[in-house]
Write a structure and sequence with these properties.
There is one protein chain. With 202 residues, the chain is of the alpha+beta class. The protein has a domain of 132 residues: 2-Layer Sandwich (Alpha-Beta Plaits), CATH 3.30.70.141. It contains eleven helices and four strands. The protein has a four-stranded antiparallel sheet.
């Protein structure tokens, strides 16, 4: 396998609700047991400016997130709060800044083949009401767009995980200095990636 495929990295943040719900260990366990390698981790309280930059690193985030919210309302036969995606995201972004700076978060970088997609799969869809059973968001939260919009707050969904490889690289640079990322060999890479499995029998 080409080496660079095993070097794929993704950024994961345990949001303030994940810390307050005592789910740090549970969340780490889910990613760790996949076989991904943890290469950076830190706890911090981010400021609002850092959060706004994080969510707007992708210039299309405002449009995509607004459209996703409108589609989700319509799929449930409900009327969205606005038909304008950008109007919806302006509110979401303000609420996100309050949510994400309300307490400590844990920021991590996980490395391994298909890290971005595998982490998103295990994390589950954005809205806990419809996240698949078995995913972290599906198993541990009961929030929805409907109740969070009524209460004028962010959906509390425990985790942020990068959406694409490109987004991941930009987000890693936004949260970490290069020297905070640790290059090391993990013993289980032998069984995950070794082509011939010729190192097991003595
Ligand atoms: P994240 O980027 O945090 O991993 P995501 O990629 O699944 O989540 P985005 O569409 O990027 O979701 O939205 C970012 C975050 O904004 C969501 O995780 C959620 O906390 C909040 N959010 C998104 N849409 C809404 C909404 N319609 N109402 C309230 N909060 C929302
Ligand atoms: Mg996102």
């Amino acid at each position: 396998m080409a080496n660079h495929l095993k070097e794929e990295r993704t950024l994961v943040i345990i949001k303030p609700d994940g810390i307050q719900r005592s789910l740090i260990g549970e969340i780490l366990r889910r990613y760790e047991r996949l076989g991904l390698k943890l290469v950076a981790i830190k706890m911090m309280v981010p400021n609002k400016d850092h959060i706004e930059k994080h969510y707007t690193l992708d210039p299309n985030w405002r449009t995509i997130t607004g459209e996703k919210t409108i589609a989700s309302y319509k799929k449930k036969g409900m009327k969205p709060p606005s038909e304008d995606p950008l109007e919806i995201t302006a509110v979401i972004l303000e609420n996100l800044k309050t949510y994400m700076t309300s307490g400590p978060v844990i920021v991590m970088v996980w490395k391994g083949v298909h890290a971005v997609k595998i982490v998103r799969k295990i994390t589950g869809g954005t809205e806990p009401l419809t996240s698949d059973v078995g995913t972290i968001r599906g198993d541990f939260v009961l929030d929805s767009y409907q109740i969070s919009d009524i209460d004028k707050r962010s959906v509390r969904n425990l985790i942020h995980a990068s959406g694409t490889e490109d987004e991941a690289e930009k987000e890693i640079k936004h949260w970490f200095e290069e020297n905070e990322l640790i290059n090391y060999r993990h013993i289980q890479e032998a069984i995950l990636y070794d082509v011939n499995l010729d190192g097991i029998l003595e």
